[in-house]
Each structure stands twice: as C-alpha cells, then as structure tokens.
C-alpha cells in the first residue's frame, strides 16, 4: 500500500513527511521553542505584507508554522501525484510535482497557519524577547553567584514559561546562594544582573 510513496515521484513528499514528524518529536520532548529565548523578531511586514500572506504575520512560532507548511506540502504533493496517476496513468516527474505542491502547500498553509494562530493562543507565550525577563524575580538553581562568577537561575515570565539564565549580583559586595531569589534589573548580552530580595531598594517592592 505504501510502496508508491517510496518511489522517486513521491520522494520530496516522503522527505517532507519525515522532517515534519522529526520536528513534532522534538517539540514533544521539550526541545523546541519553549526552551529558547529569542531576542529578535521577524519584521518588515505590515498588514497585507508577504509575511501576513504566508501566515507568519501573527504570533505563531516559526517551528509550528514550518510543521504546518510541511504537512500541507506533503498532502498537496500526494494529491497531485494521485490525481496525475488517475488521469494519465502515471505520476508526474518529481520536480514538476514538487513545484506544483509548493505553490499549493503555501496557499493551504496560509489558511492553516492563520487558523492555528486563532485557536491556539497559548503558542503566543512560547517565544518572548529576552528583555521581557527584566523586572522578574529569579531563583538561583545551584552554586553561588558573585560578581565575575555567575550562576544559573530560573525565571518565570508573564505567561508562566520557565527560563534558565545566567545571573550575577548587581552590586559588587552581594552574593546569591542556591535557593535565593533576586530581581533581574539589567542585562548585558546573555548575562543578567540582579538585586537580592533582601536589598534595601527592594524592601518596599
């Protein structure tokens, strides 16, 4: 039954299907967008722009969009080859089929991606700007953070998503031990600087 899908005319769609499954597995075991801090955003598209047309103008994470596109490409390709076989007795050569499926897949994915962005609003919380963690409290996971010797801290963003960042005390004389909580007040690159909860500036916060 599945033998035709292993032949050259179906090869692009078989590969797309395998990649789609691989991305899905990566997301399922927690190695996807939920563990990444993205400092940049895709820009340059206004209302009606190319990114909006492709379904990337909303808040859908790129890996979810890509998985949807691969699925639409695979479905379109199989449908094209099955239709060609029914009408002409043989599937199209894979380059022609792949070109047609790319166009059809983009059109299908525009609808699918926009639909996913509407019905799965929780995806909006999986990718945030790193600066969005500032003014959040973090908990030191292990070791002691001192100036010049950062330690790992766990920070939960506004959406309940946990992030692990490297933290140093803001003041030279402070130290943050395992289990201590501190307020992230500034950032330099990937390194955050924090004030311990017992700091005089935070007693009223």
Helices and strands, in N-to-C order? HHHHEEEEE
| Beta-strand share of residues | 15-25%
Shape assignment: rod-shaped
Order of strands, widest sheet: 1-2-3-5-4
- For the record, the count of structural domains works out to 2
Overall pLDDT score: 78
Say how many strands there are: 5
State the share of residues found in helices, binned by percent. 25-40%
**Biggest pleated-sheet summary:** 5 strands, mixed, barrel
| Cα end-to-end separation | 66 Å
Rg, alpha carbons: 24 Å
Secondary-structure class: alpha+beta
- Which consecutive residue ranges, at least 5 long each, have pLDDT under 50? 31-50, 121-127
**Helical stretch count?**
4
Give structural notes.
The chain has 205 residues and is of the alpha+beta class. It has helices spanning 11-28, 50-54, 62-88, 94-119; strands at 137-140, 151-156, 162-169, 181-188, 191-196. Strand 2 (151-156) and strand 3 (162-169) form a beta hairpin. The radius of gyration is 24 Å and the shape is rod-shaped. Residues 31-50 and 121-127 have low confidence and may be disordered.
């Amino acid at each position: 039954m599945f033998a035709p899908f292993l032949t050259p005319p179906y090869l692009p769609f078989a590969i797309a299907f395998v990649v789609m499954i691989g991305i899905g597995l990566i997301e399922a075991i927690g190695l996807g967008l939920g563990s990444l801090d993205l400092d940049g955003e895709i820009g340059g598209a206004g209302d009606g722009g190319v990114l909006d047309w492709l379904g990337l103008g909303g808040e859908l994470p790129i890996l979810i969009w890509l998985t949807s596109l691969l699925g639409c490409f695979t479905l379109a390709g199989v449908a094209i080859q099955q239709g060609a076989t029914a009408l002409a007795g043989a599937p199209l050569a894979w380059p022609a089929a792949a070109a047609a499926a790319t166009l059809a897949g983009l059109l299908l994915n525009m609808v699918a991606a926009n639909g996913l962005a509407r019905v799965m609003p929780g995806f909006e919380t999986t990718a945030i700007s790193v600066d969005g963690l500032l003014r959040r409290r973090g908990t030191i996971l292990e070791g002691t953070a001192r100036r010049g010797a950062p330690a790992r801290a766990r920070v939960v963003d506004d959406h309940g998503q946990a992030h692990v960042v490297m933290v140093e005390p803001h003041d030279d004389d402070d130290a943050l031990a395992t289990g201590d909580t501190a307020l992230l007040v500034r950032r330099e690159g990937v390194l955050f600087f924090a004030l311990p909860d017992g700091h005089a500036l935070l007693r009223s916060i």
